[in-house]
Amino acid sequence: LAIDDGVPPKTATATLTVIVQDINDNAPTFLKEYRPVLPEHVAPRKVVEILATDDDDRSKSNGPPFTFRMDPNADDIIRASFKVEHDQKGANGDGMAVVTSLRTFDREQQKEYLIPIVIKDSGNPAMSGTSTLTVVIGDVNDNKMQPGSKDIFVYNYMGQAPDTEIGRVYVYDLDDWDLPDKKFYWEQTEHTHFKLNEDSGMITMKHGTPDGRYNLKFKVYDRKHTQTDVPANVTVTVREIPHEAVINSGSVRIAGITDEDFIRVWNYKTQNVQKSKAERFRDKLADLLNTDRENIDVFSVQLRRKHPPVTDVRFSAHGSPYHKPVRLNGVVLMHREDIEKDVGINITMVGIDECLYENQMCEGSCTNTLDISNLPYMVNANKTSLVGVRVDVIPECTCGARNFSKSESCRSSPCHNGGRCVEGRYGLSCSCPSGYNGPRCQQISRSFRGNGFAWYSPLDMCDNSHLSLEFITRKADGMLLYNGPIVPPETDETLVSDFISLELEKGMPRLLIDFGSGTLELRVKTKKTLDDGEWHRLDVFWDTENVKLVVDFCKSADISELEDGSPPEFDDESCQSSGTVPPFNEYLNVNAPLQLGGLYVEPFDQTHFHWHTMPNGKGFDGCIKNVFHNSKLYDLASPGLWRNSVAGCPQTEEVCNTQESTLRCWEHGQCVGSFSEARCQCKPGWTGPSCLSPTTPTTFKPQSYVKYALSFEPDRFSTQMQLRFRTREEHGELFRVSDQHNREYGILEIKDSRLHFRYNLNSLRTEEKDLWLSAVTVDGQWHTAKVSRYGSAAILELDGGEGRRYNETFNFEGHQWLLVDKQEGVYAGGKAEYTGVRTFEVYADYQKGCLDDIRLEGKHLPLPPAMNGTQWGQATMARNLERNCPSNNPCANVICPDPFECVDLWNEYECTCGEGRILTPDQKSCMDKNECLERPCLNGGTCINQDPKLRYRCVCQEGFWGENCELVQEGQTLKLSMGALAAILVCLLIILILVLVFVVYNRRREAHIKYPGPDDDVRENIINYDDEGGGEDDMTAFDITPLQIPVGGPLPDMPAKLPFPPLGPEPNVGVFIEEHKKRADADPNAPPFDDLRNYAYEGGGSTAGSLSSLASGTDDNEQDFDYLGAWGPRFDKLADMYGQEGEESEEEEEQ
């Protein structure tokens, strides 16, 4: 495109053609794959005619005519057996080779011959190459058969193998192409678990055959030699291999031998039985892994290419539990030469990786996928046969961690460390045991002691990658991460020199990365060193050319933003560094173990891989956590191999255990902190200093919102939001922060059923950025959303943030500050705009949903009506809210057809099967759900499916326990150190001393208390019977008879009582009371009994009590009985009796 300088400017386009001139840089090869068959015992003759081809441009004379000749370095037996002649007129003048035999051949001596042929083209300069011709010797049935025996080993994947061919009946016969002349029969009756093909002799194992050892006996007939009833015995061993063994398997690729050669026990040259290469390989693995031979399973041997042969072998090792693939492959890689020598094989790849060689399978991102088939793979080698698991490594041209096209399933066992996988309508979640805080129950941290390391699976190959980790240390030097070669290369292997190294050097980060064409080194000179005993984060980004290293989200950058509209200034020298990798390789291809905290072996000579510089490799002393690669969080609990390294971070956990506020943090939170201080970070839904108080959710109705006034000043450079939400609505604003005029803002919202975070940091014009997740969030379940903004970079996470629940933008461009109005700029549920004095409208209204546990910068904000304020802020306005988050009872008027039942899914119902049951294939009924298909039992446990209520049960192997065999049995004996025992005894002694002091103190205190004597007790209801009163002897002193109330004694004659008062005039209450009073006075047996007490005198010499207590009685003049008049007509007489005296006194005063 060309543009001139005129007004208006004129443009024109022109096409430039670049012609690439061909040079002769490709050697000629065979036109096709030739495998001629030469029958045995025939006279010398022509075997085959061979043509050639060349990839160069023949019009430039860079191809034919070709010339052929036998390689002068060919073996003597080849040169003595075959002749290669060049025919220059053949193939229309292009030239061809004629191969002729020089003698007769016997297949029983050798089945194939490999002839190396040199082909040369006519280019300038001429190119030549060597191709190998395979001549197969054909068989003639010229030998009689003899009795034979055969061993067949069957690995039954999860016990689910269908009817499977497991091998052919074997009799000793030098001929192997005489099958049409033979017939095969059972010696007696057919076995219940096996079938026989009488024509081919193929044995088929039926579906459902249990584990065990089976001895099968057959008879064979050869019609050419008229042989009958030749016996053939076959021993079949069936062993179930679990899914866990397959996914934790190591693998090697072997060149030069077929799958049959690898398992064959019969040596044709020596005519005797020898140990197969598979058995020798198994013995060597047991020796290297220091385990019993029975714990090693070589369960898959598959031929990948016939000519020249390439075979893939897969193996597992059962320790406690199965060894990780990274350990198996790493051990084989470090001892490859010994294995090749002892077993007699040529290993070309350890850890089969179809993505290892750049641009071979994919041009760009490449991810290996393990495809496991229920259809077994049979290798039949005459005297032995192996039926293994068919496992294929499929290269997918995508970045696996970011490929969300496949739906999530619990069948892939995504939850680590015994976590329980739960499938929902729109995804799955993991219910994790205590101590595993990752979204898929990962152990997120690991500690190193300065001379250790830990191995994990290598980094996947993605053309656009992000690697991050956090660390804490007080040492200035240490290797944080290394992924690359761990042993020098072999001379004949394809060199892969890619590596990445991240380490601390003098307290500052140093990154080395090499795509195979040169090493790039990046350093960041931070304002202060990172060995300060605080947590720090490193982020590494790379694509096909550019690499960037960021420290602590660039929080230490110098920022200047003026309000006059001038461009902002962002000085990132102290927090990030970037560079370009040397050309021309574009991708990081690694398949050796990822090493954290140090290196297993000392660094080797960098010239082996043409590296420009090397990592220091010094061991790291501290803790590493949250190792993410392309949003995939590494599980640091169980590395493949480790030394001087433990899970967790004991250095910070010790600080947590010494502070009272963090002692119980683990129940509903996570203790976070440095080497000097710690605090509780509560799990979603919990609050309080020790995370022991559950939060109360709030239901947001239509036109509802909460407006906050903050008591702290929000940070301008960083913003952290976190909340829980539950909804079925496709749209709604969850939370927002903004400036006074809503020009700068950060809004967390739901749009089209997805979670979004959009933000704008420029108050003068809109430069909005929008982050969103592909995961669906409107399923009526509780979800946790988290936003972390650092300047113009932002991270959006859902439910822990992995895979489709994670997204980020990490470019520090333009404005970096967000000014928040802490009085008018913080809303939950939508922003309210008043349309009148008392009317308002909520825009982007979040309705028919719930919010809970809102946090801004880690500080809990209140949610009315349950709470209106916290120390961090107040809810100044709240409308149309309801406490808690109840469902609207959708099953109230629903009747589901049998056998379905109505299930409340929160504001939605579903007629489905109950817990533990699933729909039948015809979708019309329910049947028991076989939970064992999800493989819940770990560590080799056996799953037993039970009825729907009990679901399933795991039978754990020795050394494991728990619902899913996820816990390691440490033993039943409680072992205490001498220090712990002494501490317990000291505590018991202190408690005993405190109890004794308390008892003695109480007794001495009681001795000094003075209780009042009987003479000081002046209550009139206390009668002292040791007194004599009134100068008269008290003859009844100390006699309690007056206090006794007769029980069942004679009662005075009393007139019969009517059950109901007689009809007539109202009774006289006064007369009634007077009669009863007289009757009681006349009855000597009626209580209370009279007691005469003479208070003739009082004073210091009187034994009688003081009469002053009588003053406690009330004065009649102070009594007012007028209230008796309000009791009704039945109490009129009583009111007249007590009110009469008062009326008379009033009349006398008036007179």
Automatic annotation (TrEMBL):
Lipid bilayer topology: Single-pass type I membrane protein
A Pfam family hit: CADH_Y-type_LIR
Annotated compartments: Cell membrane
Entry annotated with the keyword DNA repair: no
Alphabetic keyword roster: Calcium, Cell adhesion, Cell membrane, Disulfide bond, EGF-like domain, Glycoprotein, Membrane, Metal-binding, Repeat, Signal, Transmembrane, Transmembrane helix
GO cellular component: adherens junction; catenin complex
Region listing for Disordered, in residue ranges: 1079-1124
Molecular function per GO: beta-catenin binding; cadherin binding; calcium ion binding
Name used for this protein in its record: Gb2-cadherin
The organism of origin for this protein: Gryllus bimaculatus (Two-spotted cricket)
